[in-house]
Amino acid sequence: MGELLLFYLIAALMVAAALSVVGSRLPIYSVLSLLVVMGCQAVFFVMLHAYFVAAIQLLLYAGAVLVLFLFVIMLLQLSPEAVAYPRLLSRPAIGITAAFGLFLILRTVFFRSLAQEPPLADLSRPHSTVEAIAHALMTKYLLPFELTSLLILAALIGAVTLAKQQASDSRLKR
Amino acid sequence: MTWKLIGVEFVVSVWTIVTLGADILNLPRRNRLWLLALAGLSLAAIVLALQPPESLGESFQDMFVVDGFGRYFKGLFLVIAAVVIVMTREFEDRLSAPLGAFYMLLFTALLGMLIVASVNDLLLLFVGLELITFSLYIMTAYLKTDPRSVEAGMKYLIIGSIASGFLIYGVALLYGFSGSTHFPSLHKAIVSGVIPLSAQAGFFFVLAGLGFKIAAVPFHLWVPDVYEGAPTPVVAFLSVGSKMAGIIALVRILYGVFLPLHGLWMDTLAILSAATMLYGNLAAIVQTNIKRLLGYSSIGHAGYLLMALSSGSSLGVSAVGYYLLAYLVSNLTVFLVIVAASKTIGGDHLEAYNGLSKRSPALAGALFLGLLSLAGVPPLAGFSGKLLILLAGAQAGQLWLVTIGALNVALSLYYYLMIVKRMYLGTPINPSVIRVHPVTHTTLILLVLGIFVLGIFQNPFLQQIQSAIENQQWTRPQFPNAEPP
Questions:
Q1: What's the rounded Cα separation, in Å, for the pair B463 and B113?
Q2: DSSP letters spanning B380-416
Q3: What's the pTM?
Q4: Which residues on chain B are in Cβ contact (under 8 Å) with A147?
Q5: Is B279 among the domain residues?
Q6: Phi/psi zone of residue B67: left (φ > 0), alpha (ψ -120 to 50 degrees), beta?
Q7: Is residue B372 within 8 Å of B297, Cβ to Cβ?
Q8: What is the DSSP string of B71-123?
Q9: Are residues A1 and A79 in the same domain?
Q10: Contact at 8 Å (CB) between B292 and B224?
Q11: Closest CA to A83 of A121, A28, A123, A41
């Protein structure tokens, strides 16, 4: 019962924070709201006994990715008027209708599916999750795991290549 | 055993590092780097050819399956990459950013395509597709000083990320349904019980994610701008390689896993196919930029491929195999001519092609044949591909779709012939002769030869394709009677 109450509380907070991400006038508020969303998500992971994923969620998303967002926004120094609102206001009806429609579809999908009681995946392994994840990564999912490293390498090299100033560019600027 | 199975992928992934390292160390000079890249492809081709047929099988907990179907497409992917490298050689003085990184990204994209050709698991499929699109995002924006290229890269990245989001959401829903991302287990779960709505939604999300890769109609918005702005070799790679990978994934999912539910997707695909063909070919008519025009025409071709897939028969799958081969030779011919000509004629505007036949009869002739083959004119490759697809559609009883397909042949012929008219009847603005490098020339001759051979002798290729798909489990039960819930 207490767990259910906690779930609804956190879920309500998460939805409110998510609304604030898309709705707030200052981008910095959007990022901070996103931080709240990520935190709530971490709580959900804890409630599902996925402690490792919860820790990763906090460390990577809240810790690294959002800090990066903050840096970018601070470096860009956008004025509040220049962001978000003009585009949001020009087509709000379409966007809100589409989002609400998608929500309705997903709601129907999930409630109907729950009524049918599908064979759910086995989630009841509350043991050491780090060990389980490591085991899965190194045995069953070895190939995707190794390929992901190449994917990250490609993204890394690509980012450096695109961001690097060329010799001719920098000469022009000086 | 396992090493034999992933030999081709192993060579390609090693070569990503080799090309990058060679460029940093400046070992071959910048204008010799393409030879190193081609050497890697030849090595991969040798490994692919040496894979003995008895070594076929599955590895990595059945995630990765090597069969005739996958090997056929792996061969085609290596050919595509080789032609793209020849194009890059022609284009390299216009690529200001480091060339080694460009070849490296070409190899990571190729690796993704090879993985997708052998995929037997949704998770591996996702990683493979991401390898392709990540590399292509960066390659699209490689002309850093050209704002159109940067814009194209940005648009491709944003729309592509949304598509990936759909795909992974669908994968998650399907995993929640069956408890596994593995194709055979998923198939078992579908055959055995009631399929909840969430699994159906997951299936359609996966379909939407793949629809982006092949540029089918509701997911086509990125195509025109990306085709116009990206470097031409990248466009060629994107339009042939990425589309082929998406189609293979669709075949493996629709026919390998979801065939019992064919009532669920046949009509959807048929409607998408009709919309895709009509949209692509109608919008192509008014274009004034040749790359943009080819972008719309590639949407049209995605429509034909969807028509073959929607037939739900093994004839449809062979038609897809043949059509992709024909599309490969014709489209690569067209793009190679564009790469070779664009520097001298200055730009990709259609007016620049006025009187091309007087400036370079060879280029104009190759472009003429490539375009006619894309349209589907009888003695050429594209005709046989279109005929097979229309036959598959007629066999499945979708006569309305076949009628729309035939109508689109006429539509596409109109705008392809407009380019031909410019080349042969227009007067050139600048009558100087265009020089073509021998390497480009040889490749063009080979591709044009391929167009003719594929158009005249269909049987050997068709038999090859049919024997490749013969052993798939989907060809045995032709139309299972299971009805969707």
A1: 24
A2: SHHHHHHHHHHHHHHHTT-HHHHHHHHHHHHHHHHHH
A3: 0.86
A4: 111, 115, 124, 127-128, 131
A5: yes
A6: beta
A7: no
A8: HHHHHHHHHHHHHHHHHHHHHGGG--S-HHHHHHHHHHHHHHHHHHHTB-BHH
A9: yes
A10: yes
A11: A28
The whole-angstrom distance between A80's CA and the closest CA on chain B is 23
Is the domain of A38 the same as that of A57?
A: yes
Contacting B residues, span 129-148, partner chain A, CB-CB under 8 Å: 130-131, 134-135, 137-138, 141-142, 144-145
**Are residue A149 and residue A109 in the same domain, yes or no?**
no
CA distance to partner chain B, nearest, from residue A121 (Å) = 4
Environment class of residue B61 by beta-carbon count within 10 Å: exposed (0-12), middle (13-18) or buried (19+)?
middle
Q: Which of B120, B33, B149 is nearest to B473 (CA)?
A: B120
On whether both A11 and A40 belong to a single domain, the answer is yes
* Structural domain boundaries enclosing A19: 1-83
Whether residue A159 lies inside any domain: the answer is: yes
A21 and A71 housed in the same domain: yes
Yes or no: say if B184 and B62 are a contact pair by the CB < 8 Å rule: yes
Could you tell me if residue B10 is inside a domain?
Answer: no
pLDDT along chain B (485 residues), means of 10: 78 90 78 87 89 64 81 92 92 80 92 92 92 92 86 92 93 88 87 83 92 88 91 93 93 88 86 92 90 93 92 87 93 92 83 85 91 89 90 89 91 91 85 85 91 86 80 49 36
Residue A174 in any domain: the answer is: no
Reported as a single tens digit per residue, the pLDDT across A141-158 is 888 898 999 999 999 988
CATH number, domain with residue A74: 1.20.120.1200
**Residue A173 resides in a domain:** no
Partners of B64 in the β-ladder: B59, B119
The domain total for chain B is 1
Note the pLDDT tens digit of each residue in B364-410: 999 999 999 999 888 888 898 999 999 999 988 888 999 999 999 99
Q: Is residue B59 part of a domain?
A: no
Residue where the block lists tokens 């999908």: A109
Residue A100 falls within a domain, yes or no? yes
Closest by alpha carbon to B56, among B45, B48, B65?
B65
Which residue in B8, B15, B149 sits closest to B85, CA to CA?
Answer: B15
User: For residue B407, what are the domain limits?
Assistant: 263-485
Please indicate, yes or no, whether residues A21 and A32 belong to a single structural domain of this protein.
yes
In a domain, B468, yes or no: yes
Rg of chain B over Cα atoms, rounded to whole angstroms, equals 21
Residues A51, A9 share a domain: yes
Distance from CA of A143 to the nearest CA of B (A): 7
Q: Do B197 and A109 touch (CB under 8 A)?
A: yes
Count of other CB atoms within 10 angstroms of residue A41? 18
Q: What is the CA angle B120-B123-B128, rounded to 5?
A: 80
**Phi, psi of B465, deg, nearest 5:** -65, -45
Amino acid making up residue A116: Q
